[in-house]
């Protein structure tokens, strides 16, 4: 067998274990009975270990070494060797004892975080967070970096992204968004938020979510929609990308937009060719690019007036109380801006502030310029500065997110980057498909989907985010598209 | 690590792979989208191979050798070493090339069978069946046997069972059942079959099946109920034993009794201690013993008058049209005897005849006394002889079952043995719990379940069927209990 064939066959074996692991994980959150949990962890542990061993095998290492020197590879193959090679070296750089030690400490930290959040007492979590920061700093040293240790961690979520680049992006964003938000709140006319409130039967919400997914082009012959406590999308394998969702009894928004959000993620993976599995590329380019796909479908499409013009009659079919509600009213209710305490509930305008604050804190924790003990104060100051709100307690403040208890520093920026990537893509999409709004208004989502497939989905992880954005838009990545998108949209909705 | 600890740890690793495989299989039939099928086969193939390698490893072989010589093992450990040792040697006895060749031929034979059945043409399947018989005969030689080659195949489904023993069991059964069926048909009064017919909303049938499962003691915290085309029960792991079911629109019977049937299987596995997984004993004693548990719950409990006396008001809660229907009417409709063409639709009285016919044919095919080309004739003669019906075509005759296309010779007798084991157990159960009918009439199933747990479930595969029956009943296995049960029950229902 020649090297590239052996390489692909090795990656296919990894993909098979990955498929079993994805199913075990999906089932754990959807159908597994509670008494199955203990053994399930063991099964997942075993398969994870087997997959890890395949991922760091010498056989794979020497295939990567050889293929890196070859100049007869296809674009996809080259992208694969780069991506797989990077991952291989990162995994090899970390001593197995560290991995185990980290896993144990992480498990304890997560438990401590859950208790501390319940008691709303940062002090209970502090020593664990100290440890997590320590692990993350050591991890950065193992991985290596040129400039800032945080870069080494970012790389795991957003290949090619750096601390300096994030600062360059964030500065103009903040400078324009802070005054815009203030103007919106002071001079804007807030739409009526009540249109999406009421009592909504669960089974009908499920059918509506299904219909919304079908509308955007999600393929149910290659997927499924199941109930879950915290929605996620998972790729079980080629032809099997599943969405999960949850619903609120008294508000249509959370269940509906979460379905569109997960649907956006799912379209990405459904749009990847089966051949990407044998190349280790059947993932998004990065967490941020993945998030761009979910945000585009949820916000730029799903919270647009053309969308609601098309969807209002469908909504009324499911819930007759909407028969006389104007699309403009639904659109307004879907786009309320409200500085608030909780990131996951934030709107398009305020969301990025939550991330900016977390990024500042994370970078400081990792380079040592911020002490863990200062976090509650820094958090509350930041919330006041960005959003003008002050958390009444730690649970609604610094303890709200699970990420740090998992040692996942460098993850948060992806959420913000997703918004920015999506806006920059949208600029190009609107040039390429000038009648986009018209198509959406008449329920034709095919052109949108084929544009996304061609420009984003089909490439999987072959290109890093920066390259991908430049390939698609012809311009380097920057925040101006998002600023323009968000100020235009909300100036109109809030009648500035 | 001492040998017994290493042995258990090895079996636990096998159980973990088995758990992943069970989940992959369950999902394939319940939730997997159709486009996921190709890769799923590959994933299952990989894990199956890995499990096989662990099951025939030299490490396990020498542990078995050593443990077989030890006299300080517990009963369960001794049962484990015997069972695991037998399986180990059977797997080792078959050359890997044979396994692969058989797998390919089987896959072709199944496809050919499906087409032949659709065209109702035995001739199209005949060459494939020739091959399957050939493989089965070679398999018997690899496994080895003392008396009849069929014994080697039976051992895989019914440890300790032989062709001679089956003949000993069947002869008196046939001699008494044939005239009884004739009398029933001639002199009996057939109950009204229409009580369970009507139009039954799917979702309500699901709720009713759930309620029936809860009634018999199935633990939903350690299981789940899902829709499927062909109902089955599967053990994903300790604390996770799942039931699947299907429903008919116009008849309540199939969905309801299939749920009880699968529930009986599931109670068995839910009743096994978690420690059996590390001993390779978390299965039934045999296919037949497993079937005894499903048949007992489905037929001896679920089709009894005490059951319907208790359950009629619950049925009426779900389907109000039953509010005025007497338990006796439901009981009658649930116990219609009807010589018919199709095994899976057969009633308690006629079912075993379908098996006797298949057993005669299988034994003859394996010892060479019957030629494949004679099957349609032999089949139709047998149906006439046992049941007085003649299949109008091969699809409703010799081609109706999938088993032979899978090369699974020796499987059918387990279905019959299940009925007989259950009847013999019931004799003892009635002695131990004299007020059983009264308990069932008042909806108290706890005593029944604890009896089954103590006598059957908790042992898993520690005892072979023959031993287990003698342990439970104090008597050697024979068919008289079944004959008595079935003649008494149906004499009453048919007012002989």
How does the SSE layout of this entry go?
The structure is a homodimer of 496-residue chains.
Chain A (H helix, E strand, L loop, with lengths): L2 H28 L6 H19 L2 H11 L6 H19 L2 H24 L2 H22 L5 H9 L5 H25 L14 H15 L8 E3 L5 E5 L2 E6 L6 H19 L16 H15 L3 H14 L8 H7 L17 H17 L7 H13 L24 H21 L3 H6 L4 H10 L9 H9 L6 H14 L3
Parallel strand pairs in A: 1-3
Antiparallel strand pairs in A: 2-3
What does this structure look like?
- 2 copies of one chain form a homodimer.
- The first copy, chain A, has helices at 3-30, 37-55, 58-68, 75-93, 96-119, 122-143, 149-157, 163-187, 202-216, 252-270, 287-301, 305-318, 327-333, 351-367, 375-387, 412-432, 436-441, 446-455, 465-473, 480-493; strands spanning 225-227, 233-237, 240-245.
- The first copy, chain A, has 496 residues and is mostly helical.
- In chain A, strand 2 (233-237) and strand 3 (240-245) form a beta hairpin.
- Chain A is globular, with a radius of gyration of 23 Å.
- Chain A starts with a helix and ends with a helix.
- The model of chain A has no long low-confidence stretch (mean pLDDT 97).
- Chain A binds chain B through residues 12-13, 16-17, 19-20, 23-24, 27, 31-40, 42-43, 46-47, 219-224, 226, 236-240, 274, 277, and chain B through 12-13, 16-17, 19-20, 23-24, 27, 31-40, 42-43, 46-47, 219-224, 226, 236-240, 242, 274, 277.
């Amino acid at each position: 067998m020649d090297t590239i064939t052996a390489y692909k066959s090795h990656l296919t074996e990894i993909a098979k274990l990955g498929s079993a692991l994805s199913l075990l994980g999906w089932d754990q959150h959807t159908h597994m009975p509670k008494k199955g949990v203990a053994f399930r962890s063991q099964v997942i542990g075993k398969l994870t270990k087997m997959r890890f061993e395949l991922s760091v095998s010498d056989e794979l290492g020497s295939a990567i070494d050889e293929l890196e020197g070859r100049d007869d590879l296809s674009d996809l193959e080259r992208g694969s060797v780069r991506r797989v090679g990077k991952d291989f070296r990162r995994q090899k750089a970390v001593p197995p004892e560290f991995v185990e030690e980290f896993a144990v400490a992480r498990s304890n930290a997560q438990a401590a975080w859950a208790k501390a959040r319940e008691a709303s007492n940062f002090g209970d979590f502090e020593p664990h967070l100290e440890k997590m920061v320590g692990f993350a700093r050591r991890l950065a040293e193992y991985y290596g970096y040129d400039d800032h240790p945080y870069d080494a961690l970012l790389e795991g979520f957003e290949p090619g992204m750096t601390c300096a680049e994030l600062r360059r992006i964030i500065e103009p964003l903040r400078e324009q968004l802070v005054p815009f938000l203030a103007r919106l709140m002071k001079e804007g006319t807030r739409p009526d938020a009540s249109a999406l409130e009421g009592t909504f039967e669960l089974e009908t919400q499920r059918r509506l979510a299904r219909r919304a997914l079908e509308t955007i082009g999600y393929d149910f012959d290659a997927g499924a929609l199941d109930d879950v406590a915290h929605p996620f999308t998972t790729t079980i394998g080629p032809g099997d990308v599943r969405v999960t969702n949850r619903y609120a009894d008294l508000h249509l928004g959370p269940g509906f937009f979460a379905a569109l959000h997960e649907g956006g993620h799912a379209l990405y993976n459904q749009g990847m060719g089966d051949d990407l599995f044998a190349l280790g590329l059947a993932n998004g380019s990065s967490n941020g690019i993945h998030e761009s796909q979910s945000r585009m479908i949820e916000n730029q499409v799903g919270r647009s007036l053309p969308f609601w013009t098309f969807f209002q009659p469908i909504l009324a079919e499911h819930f007759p109380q909407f028969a006389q509600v104007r699309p403009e009213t639904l659109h307004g209710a879907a786009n309320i801006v409200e500085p608030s305490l909780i990131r996951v509930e934030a709107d398009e305008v305020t969301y990025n502030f939550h991330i900016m604050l977390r990024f500042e804190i994370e970078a400081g924790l990792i380079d040592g310029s911020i002490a863990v003990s200062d976090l509650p104060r820094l958090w509350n100051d930041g919330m006041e500065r960005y959003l003008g709100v002050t958390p009444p307690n730690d649970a609604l403040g610094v303890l709200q997110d699970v990420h740090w208890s998992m040692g996942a520093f460098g993850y948060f920026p992806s959420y913000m980057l997703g918004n920015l990537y999506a806006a920059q893509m949208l600029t190009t999409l609107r040039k390429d498909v000038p009648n986009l709004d018209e198509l959406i208004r008449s329920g034709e989502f095919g052109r949108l989907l084929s544009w996304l497939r061609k420009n984003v989905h089909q490439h999987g992880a072959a290109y890093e985010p920066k390259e991908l954005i430049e390939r698609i838009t012809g311009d380097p990545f920057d925040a101006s598209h998002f600023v323009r998108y968000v100020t235009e949209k909300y100036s109109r909705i809030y009648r500035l």
